[in-house]
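Contributing new records

If you add data, match the layout below exactly. Sequence lines come first and carry their own label; structure lines follow with theirs. Keep one chain per record. Anything else will be rejected by the validation script.
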Amino acid sequence: MAAPQGPAGGAGGAGGMPPMSAPYPPQTQSLGGVPSVIPDVPITTVFLVLFILGGAVHMKIFRENMKDGKKFIMSGMTFGFCVARLITCILRIAWSTRPHNVSLGIAAQVFVYAGIVLLFAINLIFAERCTRAQHPRIGWSRPFTLFFAFLYFGIVVTIIMLITVLVQSFFTLSVHTHNIDRDIQLYGGTFYAVIAFMPLLLIALGLLIPRHSYIEKFGIGRFRTKEEILALASALLTLGAAFRAGTNYLDPVPLRAPTPWYFSKAAFYCFNFVIEILVVALYAAGRIDRRFIIPDGAHGRGSYNPEHEKRMSRMSQGARDWQSSYLDDLRRQWPRAYMAQQDDETMNALEGRQRAGDEEDGYVGGVPMDASELSLDNVNGQWKLRPVSVISGNTGHTSQTYAANDVKSVRKSMAKSTHSGKSGRDSWKQGARKSEAASRGESTRRSEATNEHENIDEEFDFEKEMEAILNQQPTGKERDESRRPG
């Protein structure tokens, strides 16, 4: 708010001479001007009643929370602001009845300055909590904490400076001192406009910066609703602070000049009392005591809502335990599906370790190429040994090609599954069952066809039979002599 300036350049009271004693009356216009009985007293009385109601509501909320063991300081701060505005209204009513009493005017404007900073501080506290909940790594960092400490310190120092220069301007006639006072008033108005806008900036940055963790819930209600309440209150306070700062930068208007609209009484009440009572009502209707409350002594990530942090940790640990247990069961019961689920790098890493366990379970992952079988050569009609990629056993012949086809079929079946929940596990098991059954059926059919072709039963002694057949075959020399003509 623009403060009225004291007499400048020797201009003063009657006859153009300054009064002989301080405080000196102002010689320039300010926002709202000097109040009068009509219309200031009726309007100020309405706001007086509204601030009484607002203070009573917030004090009741504060006392109820204290009974429940919850200390929400911001309700007490809002009550303090309402008390400051009650005093402001009372002093303004008294000043309207005695317009020439400079001391009443000084006191009324001091309380106008002193009250609004409480709402600025409340919004900053809420913005700090929202930022720490969204981005704990940034919000709990030392630079961020020091930055907010600097803002709180600046609010206190600035209000002391503004009150000092306001009072001083009524007790000096020095032009140089008045210029310094004006510069400080410009700084103070600009600083408070920036402070009022700061929560809006932090909300926007919180939404734009990518999050690396979940939002830490605190209080009740949705986090989006908290930000909406804070944004609306900050927008209202920014409007009032920006208007007051803008009027400070305009050239001073002499008392005898026509009053511009931005110094009118309507502008004073709209950009001060109306905005402030709306913010007080918003705090009460939005139940900031429940939405923005945090545990006493909260410090560090997870301290705003310890139960939520524990619950999220248990959920994460439970998910990891379920995944580990599921993979163990899959590897034990369905080794082929487990191997198909892994990528190539994992399959190569587990190949040696998996092969030993698979051989115990009756599954051979790789088939060596050093086996052979006795077969009849269709060219010369002789029996000979032919190397094949086959391993003979109780279940018949199993080839490497069949194993490769089996893995491919498992991969296809798993690609169609959802890979999550019971349906995923059923799909994997079903695919593994089908592929294993197909492999066993194909192996059985190949084994039966080979046995029928060679007429070899389960008790066939391969080594003895091979030795006997080789003994019966003529050597190369005997074959040549038998072919010579007699």
